Amino acid sequence: MTKYIENVNAYLSQMKIKQTYISLKTGIDKNKLSRILTGTQDVSATDMEKIANALGKKIEFFLNDTFCVPRIMDFEPEKISFYAGEPTQKQEQIANKLLQLMENIDEVMSAKYRFVNISEDNT
Protein backbone atom coordinates (compact mmCIF):
# COMPACT_ATOMS: atom_id res chain seq x y z
CA MET A 1 0.00 0.00 0.00
CA THR A 2 1.36 3.42 -0.93
CA LYS A 3 1.95 6.29 1.49
CA TYR A 4 -0.80 8.21 -0.30
CA ILE A 5 -3.38 5.45 0.34
CA GLU A 6 -2.25 4.95 3.95
CA ASN A 7 -2.69 8.66 4.60
CA VAL A 8 -6.05 8.84 2.80
CA ASN A 9 -7.31 5.89 4.87
CA ALA A 10 -6.08 7.53 8.09
CA TYR A 11 -7.81 10.77 7.10
CA LEU A 12 -11.08 9.02 6.21
CA SER A 13 -11.03 7.10 9.46
CA GLN A 14 -10.22 10.07 11.69
CA MET A 15 -12.70 12.37 9.95
CA LYS A 16 -15.35 9.61 9.80
CA ILE A 17 -15.86 10.01 6.06
CA LYS A 18 -17.49 7.10 4.24
CA GLN A 19 -16.22 5.61 1.00
CA THR A 20 -19.69 6.14 -0.45
CA TYR A 21 -19.27 9.89 -0.05
CA ILE A 22 -15.90 9.80 -1.83
CA SER A 23 -17.38 7.67 -4.60
CA LEU A 24 -20.21 10.15 -5.12
CA LYS A 25 -17.89 13.18 -5.08
CA THR A 26 -15.28 11.65 -7.40
CA GLY A 27 -17.39 9.55 -9.74
CA ILE A 28 -15.14 6.58 -8.99
CA ASP A 29 -17.12 3.33 -8.82
CA LYS A 30 -17.60 2.14 -5.20
CA ASN A 31 -16.01 -1.24 -5.90
CA LYS A 32 -13.01 0.32 -7.63
CA LEU A 33 -12.58 2.82 -4.80
CA SER A 34 -12.67 -0.01 -2.28
CA ARG A 35 -9.96 -1.88 -4.20
CA ILE A 36 -7.85 1.27 -4.35
CA LEU A 37 -8.21 1.99 -0.63
CA THR A 38 -7.38 -1.59 0.35
CA GLY A 39 -4.32 -1.60 -1.90
CA THR A 40 -5.71 -4.34 -4.15
CA GLN A 41 -5.69 -2.00 -7.14
CA ASP A 42 -3.04 0.59 -7.94
CA VAL A 43 -4.21 4.18 -7.77
CA SER A 44 -3.73 6.34 -10.85
CA ALA A 45 -2.65 9.97 -10.73
CA THR A 46 -6.11 10.95 -11.98
CA ASP A 47 -7.82 9.02 -9.18
CA MET A 48 -5.39 10.48 -6.62
CA GLU A 49 -6.35 13.95 -7.76
CA LYS A 50 -10.09 13.17 -7.67
CA ILE A 51 -9.87 11.72 -4.16
CA ALA A 52 -7.81 14.62 -2.83
CA ASN A 53 -10.16 17.17 -4.41
CA ALA A 54 -13.20 15.39 -2.95
CA LEU A 55 -11.60 15.80 0.47
CA GLY A 56 -10.81 19.45 -0.15
CA LYS A 57 -7.06 18.84 -0.17
CA LYS A 58 -4.19 18.71 -2.64
CA ILE A 59 -2.44 15.45 -3.53
CA GLU A 60 0.69 16.64 -1.73
CA PHE A 61 -1.22 16.74 1.56
CA PHE A 62 -1.56 12.95 1.46
CA LEU A 63 1.99 12.30 0.25
CA ASN A 64 3.76 13.79 3.27
CA ASP A 65 5.77 11.46 5.47
CA THR A 66 4.88 13.61 8.46
CA PHE A 67 1.16 13.33 7.83
CA CYS A 68 -1.01 14.74 10.60
CA VAL A 69 -4.76 14.22 10.56
CA PRO A 70 -6.74 17.05 12.15
CA ARG A 71 -8.95 16.02 15.04
CA ILE A 72 -12.66 16.66 14.61
CA MET A 73 -12.67 18.31 18.05
CA ASP A 74 -10.35 21.02 16.67
CA PHE A 75 -13.08 22.33 14.36
CA GLU A 76 -15.40 25.13 15.40
CA PRO A 77 -18.84 23.78 16.38
CA GLU A 78 -20.50 25.84 13.65
CA LYS A 79 -18.46 24.10 10.96
CA ILE A 80 -18.33 20.49 12.10
CA SER A 81 -21.37 19.56 10.04
CA PHE A 82 -19.46 20.38 6.88
CA TYR A 83 -15.97 19.00 7.54
CA ALA A 84 -16.33 16.56 4.64
CA GLY A 85 -17.03 19.14 1.99
CA GLU A 86 -18.37 22.53 1.13
CA PRO A 87 -22.09 23.01 1.80
CA THR A 88 -24.45 24.49 -0.72
CA GLN A 89 -26.05 27.80 0.21
CA LYS A 90 -29.32 26.05 1.08
CA GLN A 91 -27.50 23.49 3.28
CA GLU A 92 -25.72 26.29 5.08
CA GLN A 93 -29.03 28.10 5.71
CA ILE A 94 -30.57 24.91 7.12
CA ALA A 95 -27.52 24.27 9.29
CA ASN A 96 -27.64 27.82 10.64
CA LYS A 97 -31.33 27.43 11.50
CA LEU A 98 -30.61 24.13 13.26
CA LEU A 99 -27.75 25.73 15.16
CA GLN A 100 -30.01 28.59 16.21
CA LEU A 101 -32.64 26.08 17.38
CA MET A 102 -30.04 24.15 19.38
CA GLU A 103 -28.73 27.35 20.96
CA ASN A 104 -32.28 28.16 22.08
CA ILE A 105 -33.50 24.64 22.89
CA ASP A 106 -33.91 25.42 26.60
CA GLU A 107 -36.27 28.28 25.80
CA VAL A 108 -38.22 26.14 23.33
CA MET A 109 -38.61 23.30 25.82
CA SER A 110 -39.59 25.57 28.71
CA ALA A 111 -42.19 27.28 26.50
CA LYS A 112 -43.63 23.88 25.62
CA TYR A 113 -43.76 23.00 29.33
CA ARG A 114 -45.60 26.27 30.12
CA PHE A 115 -48.16 25.64 27.37
CA VAL A 116 -48.78 22.09 28.58
CA ASN A 117 -49.29 23.35 32.13
CA ILE A 118 -51.68 26.10 30.97
CA SER A 119 -53.76 23.63 28.99
CA GLU A 120 -53.93 21.24 31.95
CA ASP A 121 -55.00 24.05 34.29
CA ASN A 122 -57.90 24.97 31.98
CA THR A 123 -59.37 21.46 31.91
From TrEMBL:
UniProt domain HTH cro/C1-type: residue ranges: 14-62
Pfam families from the UniProt entry: HTH_3
MF-aspect GO terms: DNA binding
SUPFAM superfamilies attached to this UniProt entry: lambda repressor-like DNA-binding domains
InterPro entries named in the record: Cro/C1-type_HTH, Lambda_DNA-bd_dom_sf
Gene3D superfamilies: lambda repressor-like DNA-binding domains
Record protein name field: Helix-turn-helix transcriptional regulator
Gene source species: Candidatus Scybalocola faecigallinarum
